[in-house]
Write a structure and sequence with these properties.
By secondary structure, the protein is an alpha+beta fold. The chain contains 1 helix and 11 strands. It has one domain. It has a 5-stranded antiparallel sheet with strand order 3-4-5-6-7, with helices on one face.
Length: 196
C-alpha cells in the first residue's frame, strides 16, 4: 500500500515566506517605476515650459526693431534727449518688436515683460510711430510663467563690457540682454539674448 505524502508545515511556511518576499519586491519595483514615471513627466513638463518661454523671449527680443541709425533704436520715447527702445529696471523692460501671428493679430508691438505677483507677464500694445505706450496696467496681458520667485534683467552696453543692472545708466542700445529666472524653487539656465 502506497502512502500519499503532503507538505509539512515547515515546507508550507518556507514557501509562503518566499512568495511574500517576491510580492514585496514586485510591489516595491512597481512603486519605484510609478514614482520614476511621475518624476520624469514633471521634469519633461518643466523642460518644455523652459523651452517655450525661452524661445518666445529669444525670438521677440532678438527681433527688436532698430531705426538703422548707428547705435540708435526706433524712437518711441525720448529719455534725456536720446532715443531708446529698451526702457526698464532690473525686474522689467519694454521693447518694440514685430509679432507674427494669424487671424487679426500680428504687426509691430510695444512689448512689456515684468513680474506681477508670482507670474512673469508679457503685455503688449500696437506700435505707432512717435506715440509712447500708455499705462501697461490697462493693456492685454499673458502670464508666460507661474510660480516665479526671482526675475532679473541686465544688459551689456558694449561688447567686452560688464553686465549692468541699472538701466538709467544706458546711453545707447544694448548689445545683449541677460535674464535670470527662478521658478518652482529652481533656477533656470541664464537666458542670454544678443540683439541683432
Amino acid at each position: 500500500m502506497n502512502r500519499v505524502r503532503g507538505f509539512t508545515l515547515m515546507e508550507v511556511m518556507i514557501a509562503l515566506t518566499i512568495l511574500s518576499m517576491m510580492m514585496v519586491a514586485i510591489v516595491s519595483s512597481l512603486r519605484t517605476f510609478a514614482n520614476t514615471q511621475v518624476s520624469l513627466e514633471r521634469t519633461t513638463a518643466r523642460v518644455d515650459e523652459m523651452r517655450m518661454v525661452s524661445g518666445f523671449l529669444r525670438r521677440s527680443v532678438e527681433a527688436t526693431i532698430s531705426s538703422g541709425g548707428g547705435n540708435r533704436a526706433l524712437s518711441f520715447d525720448a529719455v534725456e534727449g536720446r532715443e531708446t527702445y529698451f526702457l526698464g529696471m532690473a525686474s522689467e523692460f519694454t521693447w518694440v518688436a514685430p509679432v507674427a501671428a494669424g487671424a487679426g493679430f500680428g504687426g509691430v508691438y510695444f512689448m512689456h515683460l515684468g513680474l506681477e505677483g508670482d507670474a512673469l507677464t508679457v503685455r503688449w500694445q500696437p506700435y505707432r510711430s512717435g506715440v509712447t505706450p500708455v499705462g501697461w496696467g490697462d493693456m492685454q496681458a499673458r502670464a508666460l510663467l507661474q510660480d516665479v520667485q526671482e526675475y532679473r534683467v541686465s544688459y551689456l552696453p558694449v561688447h567686452g563690457g560688464e553686465w549692468m543692472d541699472d538701466w538709467s545708466d544706458s546711453s545707447s542700445t544694448p548689445v545683449s540682454v541677460r535674464m535670470q529666472i527662478k521658478a518652482g524653487e529652481k533656477y533656470w539656465p541664464e537666458l542670454l539674448i544678443r540683439l541683432n
